Amino acid sequence: MQAMFKKVRRPCPICMGDTGDVLHHQRFVIPDRYRLPDSYDVVSCKRCGFVYADTPARQEDYDRYYKECSIYEDVELASGGGATEWDARRLDRTAADIERILSDKNAAIVDLGCANGGLLMALKDRGFLNVTGIDPSPTCVAHVGNQGIRCFVGGLFANEPNWFSAIGGPFDCVILCHVLEHVLDLKTALENVMQLVKTNGILYIEVPNASRYADCPVAPYYYFDCEHINHFEGISMSNLLGQYGCRPIESREKEIQVSDSVAYPAVYCAFVKTDRRLIFIAPVPDLKSRQSILAHIEISYRGSGTKTLEDLARNQTEIIVWGAGSHTLRLLGNTPLGKCNIAGFVDKDSKKQGLKIMDIPVRSPAFLRSFTGPVVICSALHSQEILRELRGMECKNEAIVL
Q: Reduced to 3 DSSP states, what percent helix, strand and coil does the chain have, rounded to the nearest 5?
């Protein structure tokens, strides 16, 4: 693939480089309340190789999105709360990794972006006595508090006077578990995080592992969505944290379950915060992630067959789309699904119900009881579960799984 460099709108989050190689242009159809861009370039920094979304959005756009449109509030549907067997198992494994690194059960621990508190509960089950959660969603915070865990509404950019001291910091261990891939302004975020970590304290960070995207091709362009705008692996994480005086002590790759049938590549890195002042460290080029992402793009291009959607669009058959998540938004923006005769969207997530996509409302699955046409199931992770639920509703609709 021939490099196509451009002057980026968003400087590289690792080295602040201003030139990127455009690997892919990702399009979406965005629901009315999301207020996020409907497209961006996936670029690789010319200087250090880091791959990220060159999005025109601002950090405050993402902050508002996570506060108002959080997908993690529904305890039964969202991961992170331990409601399913596979999610509970994943969280316990992460708690075990933290326990191996941090043996003191009296250590003060804070989970930034704790969602519904599943990891905090897993740490409590392993004997940790002093755990705190922080999340931008008041609904999530209330749920965690109802489980007897201290939790505060806030995030990486809380700037109220004395906010950090009010939550009880600094802490012996700060956890950022599947958070940094969502953050546009990493520099400000990490400057704030450093205030929360004691000198010689532990910073535990877990993110999707971009160096293995090609090994886990869940769905076409699965790893490019509205939310995941940074594509890390161990090298890029060390490049980033090294600038804040953090010394790596452990880094391991793993796979985590994100549904009954789908595993997801992840990597965690543990650092010790030293008392060195902030200095710039020349980055080690991260070429492995770039190669894996290019392979993921190629696999996605070959695997995004659209004959069924072309037939539906040509015939203008009235359909219902079950699923209003990222997979649907990608398909609407990049395939003939956006040209189909869509009578409505349905989704079990109460947070999505009431949204409009292409000026078409998202409703609960009960809407299907009055519809006799085909149901197009659009879910990268849960298509078989949705199919079983559709049959359990005794609906006679033709089901088309994308």
A: 35, 25, 40
Model pTM score: 0.90
Instruction: Looking at 43-185, list the stretches that DSSP marks H as alpha helix, in order from N- to C-terminal side.
Output: 59-68, 85-101, 118-125, 138-146, 163-166
Look at the alpha carbons of 7, 10, 14, 20 in this order and tell me if their dihedral is positive or negative.
Answer: negative
3-state secondary structure of 53: strand
* 296 and 214 Cβ atoms separated by less than 8 Å: yes
Alpha helices in 18-58 (DSSP H): none
> 186: helix, coil or strand?
helix
* Per-residue tokens: 11: 């400087």
Q: Are strands 375-377 and 318-322 parallel, antiparallel or unpaired?
A: parallel
Domain boundaries, the chain: 66-299, 307-401
Residue 152 DSSP SS3: strand
Q: How many Å apart are CA 292 and CA 211, to the nearest integer? A: 5
- Tell me phi and psi for residue 326, to 5 degrees: -60, -35
Tokens representing 340 are 């189909």
307-401 folds as Rossmann fold (3.40.50)
The per-residue pLDDT for range 25-65, each reduced to its tens digit, is 999 999 988 889 999 999 999 999 999 999 999 999 998 88
Rounded CA-CA distance 199/190 in Å is: 15
Residue 383 burial by CB count (10 A; 0-12/13-18/19+): exposed, middle or buried?
buried
- The CATH topology of domain 66-299 is Rossmann fold (3.40.50)
